[in-house]
Amino acid sequence: MLEKSLSRILVVNLLFAGAILSATEEPEKVFAVRTAKSESRTIAQTIVKTGSLSSPAIVDISPRVAGRLLSTANAEGKELEEGALVKKGDVIATLDAREYEAKLEAAKAAVQYAEAALKDKTREYERLNKLLEKSVATQQEVDLAESAKLCAEAELNKAKAELAAAQLNFDETKLYAPMDAAISAKKLYPGAMVSSSDVIYTITQTNPLRVLFDIPTTVYPLLKVGSTTVKLTVDAYPEAPVELVVSEAYPVANELTRTVTVKATLENNDGKYKPGMFVSGEIFLNQRDNIVVVPYAAIHRIVNKYYVYTIENDIAKLTPITVGIRYDDVMEVTSGIAEGVDVVVDGKHRLADGVKIKVVQ
Questions:
Q1: Using CA atoms, how far apart are residues 186 and 71, in angstroms rounded to an integer?
Q2: What is the model's pLDDT at position 106?
């Protein structure tokens, strides 16, 4: 019995000694983490909207005068069809001008006749004035000559006005492109009788194009016309986004959607963009330059306060910060840390303030 008691005491002592030895020899735990540096950037609050490219001007081309359509070719004789590009001032259609040319010549002759009549009435008026000075002619004769001269002047002015109208009608037998555009529809062909109500072409301006987006009124105060940027992606060219600037905001909000329409202009010199193409735009609001940001993965939120783990002598330090806006994978830091500070981005969920860490690649 005594031997069993001594054995039990010996076992207990050995276990106790082993526990003490184990406690004293256990190494300090080190947590492996990955870090990134806080940096200075330009960021913005963003919203993404979809829309389509549209032409700023679509015009129906109609003649001002009636007549037979002789040609739908340009000045070089090339027939114009849908898709053809025209420059401002190019001839795009010609009407039969013979009737208007005859009226123009008649108007020119009427002006010459009126000029000759005025010269005759002026000479008569001047002759009678000289005779009146010699008391050979009467005042009544002079007054009648003056009236005749004034009537001749009026007839000349009328003839000149009719000449101008005849010249205008003659000029209108040729139709010119009012802008750089593409012919989007051709509706009449040579031989047709046309009037001012008939549309020969519809032409569409293709450069520049415009992009319209509707943004909520809640973020409209953050918009700055002339400086707010839009990252535009056209569905036909997803690999080549372009950066535009908001050039205009409509003055009235939509009462049903509570949105404001904003416009940006897209240059299309090579014609690769087409009206109607689907686009998406990332609109950058509330842009801030040269501010401190950290990866969003580094943010540690406790209740309603924000922290990051910084490093001092291989020790994790829970550092309080204040944050601003988030952009993509970074968060603005308005106070708490400066630029160039190492913060923990991976492994922070296992940390506590004051634990030892090891930075790994």
A1: 12
A2: 97
Relative to beta strand 356-359, strand 30-37 is parallel
Mark which of 268, 288, 308 sits at the end of a domain.
288
Query: In which domain, by residue range, is 348 found?
Result: 30-43+290-359
Which long-range contacts link 248-253 to residues 24+ away (Cβ below 8 Å)?
249/220, 249/223, 249/225, 253/217, 253/220
Query: In the structure, what pLDDT confidence band is assigned to residue 137 with cuts at 50, 70 and 90?
Result: confident
CB burial string 48-64: b at 16+ within 10 A, e below: ebebebebeeebebbbe
Range list of β-strands (E), 140-208: 174-176, 181-186, 193-194, 201-204
Q: Residue 8 — very low, low, confident or very high, per pLDDT cuts 50/70/90?
A: low
Question: What are the distances in angstroms from CA 236 to CA 52, 233, 240, 241, 279?
Answer: 12, 9, 9, 10, 9
Q: What are phi and psi of 65, to 5 degrees?
A: -120, 160
Dig out the tokens for 14 from the structure: 């050995």
Q: Three-state SS string across 164-180, please?
A: HHHHHHHHCCEEECCCC
Q: What's the pLDDT at 44? A: 81
Cβ-proximal residues to 292 (8 Å cutoff; 6+ apart), any chain: 38, 39, 40, 332, 333, 334, 337, 338, 339
Dihedral sign from CA coordinates of 21, 23, 28, 31: positive
pLDDT at 349: 87
DSSP code string of 250-267: -SS-BTTTTEEEEEEEE-
Domain containing 212 — which CATH number?
Answer: 2.40.30.170
Res 119 pLDDT > 90: yes
Integer-rounded Cα radius of gyration of the chain: 44
pLDDT in tens, 281-309: 999 988 888 899 999 999 989 888 999 99
Average pLDDT over residues 63-91: 95
Question: What is the Cα–Cα distance from 180 to 76, expressed in whole angstroms?
Answer: 17
Say whether pLDDT at 21 is over 50: no
The CATH number of whichever domain residue 305 belongs to comes to: 2.40.420.20
Q: Is residue 16 part of a domain?
A: no
Instruction: Give the residues across from 25 on adjacent strands.
Output: none
- When mean pLDDT is compared across 47-56, 129-138, 237-246, the lowest value belongs to 129-138
